[in-house]
Amino acid sequence: MRAHDIDVAGGRAFVLEEGEGTPVLCLHTAGQNGVQWRDVQSELAALGYRVVVPDLPGHGRSEPAPHGPVRDLGDYAAWCEELIDRLGMERSFVVGCSIGGAITLQLAVRRGDRLAGAVAMAAHGGTDTVRMLSVGGLERELVDAAAPSRSDRTYHGTLAVVGSSVPPERAELIARMHRREDPEITTSDLIGWVTHDVRSGLPGVGCPVHLVAGADDLWLDAADVRHAADLIPDARCTFLDGVGHYPMEELRGFASTLHGWLTDLRRVA
Amino acid sequence: MGSTAAAPPGTPTRPAGSGPYFEDFEVGRTFTGPARPLSPADVAAFAELSGDRHPLHTTSGQPGGGRPLVHGPLGIACFFGWLYERGLATHVEAALDTRWRYLAPLHPGDAVRYEMTITRARRTSALVNGVIGRHVLVRDQQGVIVQEGETAALVTARDAADDERRVGRAFPGAAWARRLGERLAAATPFTTATGTWDGAIGLRFGEDVVQFRIYRGRVLDAGARTPAGPTFVVGAPDITWVRLLTGPVNDFTKRTMRGEFTVSGSAYEYLRLTGALVALVDEARALAHEHGEAP
């Protein structure tokens, strides 16, 4: 495993890299960091991939973005593009979850012709039909004095969206680790989620795409995911029974599942 | 209603004398049965009987040429017929109220299926009978929920006895509130989470609020009223509480995320007590299962 501490978009970025072979960029969820991929990283590397796991700006060990917390997922996509170029990740796969999935779709729209493929989990490229979050509510949440019991809410909120097939002790570990967020960063990420929309670009995506969603994911409307899959030429679409919002943390042996999806995308391309 | 509204073939007609008493309607228990067809003749007979011969329900159909609609109240009437046919009304002394919502259209030729869940059971002070709250889901042949309602009835008790054993599910009554208050006072997750708090938690079941007055982790009072009123009230229809408190897991957070609960009063204090409310629900669930099946 190699750690990079490199400048990306004017800030120091922490990036873990493991393995040789086809590059795969792995993107984490709102407010979290690359540690969400810790189990997947080594197993996927052993399957013949160069696995690159960044902490997005303001997350984990990466410095905050120079102009404050990011509220536009397009900014994260541009940051990822710079990272991909800096690390020479030619014909890379991108896989991400939640805002990471939305950034994955943004990258597929922006530079799909230079990607090997994209796996977007818990994302659908646009505004939620059933709105559980609002910019106004999130703006209130950004005022620390108005956001009590934040850690408890993240903990219980995470438990509520982990899938029914996940053993309780694993769900507990996921929820405990999610407490480690910076609420300002998470909330800004969620404003990015609520306001992003790349659906108009989906029909022109230049790489094969696989959309993945957990059947137990309360944050997502399955119809939104199916709609996005319909917009993207030849998109794959998978719903995982018993899985919630965090497939890479919830599913044992997720690396081999992902390997299967990437192999399939390579065939399509 | 004419003979055209008879029960589907094979439905047993219960002899008088058998059938459940007040004590048999445990809160959380669900009753289902076979589908009940609503034939064009049923709809025509109901139009004659009620006098509601509106063209919506007859051959001329809806404006714009849609299919005729079954009278919404026929869904209610057939529910009471279903209760009788299933032998569930044997010891009913009186119907007390009915609140019903028509959520999707029914057309002649459709068939409905009833799912009834007991949401409340309160013995009267005379002890010889009690009031049963019932939630009713009505689904069509595709499984779509077309009607939903609540209806209460006075039901004869088997024995004129006290209900100590059933207090765990006697929400939101005074005895239940007292018992939950005792449990909360002894539950470390709750007392820790409220250890710096001064206020009253309100829980609203349908239209009824029960309050728990908390001061620094101590439960000072539990009941329908507190002198200064609740700091916040978290509320839901009876059926939501029943599913939460008698169901397999504490999924309170999921239900709040789905918008099944509403909050009035101080939203800040409600959020502040996130962990305390999960602990409260844990205790209420344990109380509901004290004498019943394991959760």
Description:
The complex is a heterodimer of chains A (269) and B (295). Chain A has 10 helices and 8 strands. In chain A, strand 1 (2-8) and strand 2 (11-18) form a beta hairpin. An 8-stranded mixed β-sheet of chain A has the order 1-2-4-3-5-6-7-8, sandwiched between helices. Chain A has helices at residues 38-46, 73-86, 99-111, 135-142, 150-161, 168-178, 183-195, 222-231, 247-250, 254-268, and strands at residues 2-8, 11-18, 22-27, 49-54, 92-97, 115-121, 209-214, 236-240. Chain A is an alpha/beta fold. In chain A, 51% of the residues are buried. Chain B is an alpha+beta fold and 295 residues long. Chain B folds into 2 domains: 20-162, Hotdog Thioesterase (Thiol Ester Dehydrase, Chain A); 166-288, 2-Layer Sandwich (Nonspecific Lipid-transfer Protein, Chain A). The relative contact order of chain B is 0.12. Chain B has 8 helices and 11 strands. Helix content of chain B is 27%, strand content 28%. Chains A and B meet through helix 5 of A and helix 6, helix 7 and helix 8 of B.
Can I get a quick summary?
Chain A is of the alpha/beta class and 269 residues long. Helix content of chain A is 41%, strand content 19%.
What sequence of helices (H) and strands (E) makes up the elements of chain A?
EEEHEHEHEHHHHEHEHH
**Share in β-strands of chain B:** 25-35%
| Class per helix and strand makeup of chain A | alpha/beta
Low-pLDDT stretches of chain B: 1-16
End-to-end distance of chain A: 29 Å
Contiguous helical run count of chain B: 8
Q: Helicity range of the residues of chain B?
A: 25-40%
| Basic shape of chain A | globular
CATH class of the largest domain in chain B: Alpha Beta
Write the CATH fold name of chain A: Rossmann fold
Biggest β-sheet description of chain B:
6 strands, antiparallel
Number of domains of chain A: 1
Average of the residue pLDDT scores of chain A: 97
Structure class of chain B: alpha+beta
